[in-house]
Design brief:
globular; disordered C terminus
């Protein structure tokens, strides 16, 4: 009975929707709950799907969204890849196991993937909530980063310590790991590697807000604070990424930053060519050396770092043949043959192919790489002089996608990282679909202006 507290966000969302509307409830209820509460706790209903904290709020919001007439939503071809991804995963699980497992997976895909995609596509750009959405993401994850200092210092997770008692046995699998003699902070994101991905998003959105002058210069009542609030938020976000001690996320953040940096230069094409040349000149030899470094085997590894690299190399060598036995729809979530010593598959591409097959991989690649390529093309098509240097939303989103490409090669994309990926897909799609301005100056209160009138013929009276 204690697990029924997971339904509390749904009750709050219902009250807020009734009084303030769907946009307010999405931004002020769903997003903070999603970013601040773990997704591995569920309210258990025998014979029915088991919702988490954010999923209970999501169900309420989608009912209100549909009853309101799908405000802000426009269909696009990219939607088919989202729906196809969820459908392929669900059919794969149903064929591999049974209806009960497929039911829970389908519920997770719909409520944790499709609905957040629709919300982000419909309620951010069409209603001018670009800055509001980014600020809520940054503030929520900066709170997590500050609390994570405790986990790094004392070695136990504050969220598990507080919430485990309400969900007996549900959080036991997610333990604090250590590196360099320090605890790796995971926060509400289950594992430090997943927390690293979320903190990359926090840092990149914060830098974009900073460059766009979206934060006030001083905080009311705290004018004595040195430097600007944007500076402190950037520092906290960077600290949150560091506390995860996730080397894959650090590398992903660095490479993603090179893409975002293109928006900081007026001569973008020349800088982009220089970045591309550098990545090829450095990346190709580095890839060859990494293969030689990782292919020695764990038994011959010289240190823990080489052993970790060798483990991930062995995963591909060991599991590709198994994945090719069922190439179209895969083995399901956990039905594949386990090879002793390599049960944990820390590579989302390999894991997705193993679990759900080539059709699912195709849909996922179209979402990941297809959206990335379209964002870069869209970014280069925009004039660089529309706003402050670095205020390009397209380059910022492209940098986050590049970081995803690298980071999920070292960890599976689960819990908040999956849902956040879907929301980024929805936001990016709406942004490019509506061709809103590359930069919109924030109002005095920090909120975004109303959407730009895109009608081909506009008339106004001038006195």
């Amino acid at each position: 009975m204690l697990s029924f507290i997971a339904l509390l966000p749904g009750i709050i969302a219902y009250r807020i929707v009734s009084k303030r509307g769907i946009q307010f409830a999405f931004l002020r209820v769903y997003m903070p709950v999603f970013l601040l509460m773990p997704e591995y706790y569920h309210c258990v209903f025998p014979g029915a799907p088991d919702p988490s904290f954010s999923q209970s709020a999501c169900v309420v919001l989608i009912v209100s969204f549909v009853r309101s007439g799908w405000p802000g939503y426009r269909f696009s071809f990219n939607d088919l890849w989202v729906y196809g991804y969820a459908l392929c995963c669900s059919v794969s699980e149903y064929r591999a196991t049974n209806y009960a497992d497929a039911q829970n997976l389908m519920f997770g895909m719909v409520v944790g993937g499709i609905f957040p995609y629709i919300f982000a596509k419909s309620l951010i750009e069409p209603f001018g909530n670009r800055f509001e959405f980014a600020k809520i993401c940054v503030l929520s994850m900066c709170i997590v980063a500050i609390i994570n200092i405790w986990e790094t210092r004392f070695g136990f997770n504050v969220w598990r310590f507080t919430i485990d008692r309400f969900f007996p046995g549900q959080g036991q699998a997610w333990v604090t790991t250590f590196r360099f003699g320090l605890a790796r902070a995971a926060g509400p994101y289950a594992h430090a590697l997943l927390a690293g991905v979320m903190m990359i998003i926090c840092f990149r959105l914060q830098r974009w807000l900073h460059w766009s002058d979206a934060w006030p210069r001083k905080i009311k009542g705290m004018k004595w604070l040195p430097y600007t609030p944007a500076f402190w938020l950037s520092l906290i976000a960077a600290g949150g990424l560091f506390l995860t001690l996730a080397k894959g996320s650090w590398l992903a953040s660095f490479v993603g930053a090179t893409i975002t940096a293109m928006g900081r230069f007026k001569n973008r094409k020349q800088f982009g060519m220089a970045i591309l040349f550098s990545l090829v000149a450095i990346g190709v030899p580095a890839a060859g050396k990494f293969i030689s470094y990782a292919s020695v085997g764990r038994s011959a590894a010289a240190d823990a770092n080489q052993e970790t690299a060798a483990y991930r190399y062995e995963l591909i060598a060991n599991y590709m043949d198994i994945a090719n036995e069922k190439p179209m729809l895969g083995w399901g979530l956990s039905a594949w043959p386990k090879i002793p010593g390599t049960e944990s598959i820390d590579n989302h591409y390999l894991l997705l192919y193993l679990m759900h097959g080539r059709l699912t991989i195709l849909c996922f690649f179209m979402l990941l790489f297809g959206t990335l390529i379209r964002l870069i093309r869209y970014a280069f098509s925009q004039p660089p002089a529309q706003g402050p240097l670095g205020s390009s939303l397209a380059f910022t989103l492209a940098g986050i996608y590049v970081a995803y490409v690298i980071a999920i090669a070292t960890v599976y994309m689960g819990f908040q990282t999956f849902t956040m990926f879907m929301m980024l897909c929805g936001w990016s799609e709406s942004y490019m679909q509506r061709r809103t301005r590359e930069w919109q100056p924030p109002d005095d209160d920090g909120s975004a202006p109303p959407p730009i009138d895109s009608r081909p013929f506009k008339f106004q009276k001038v006195l």
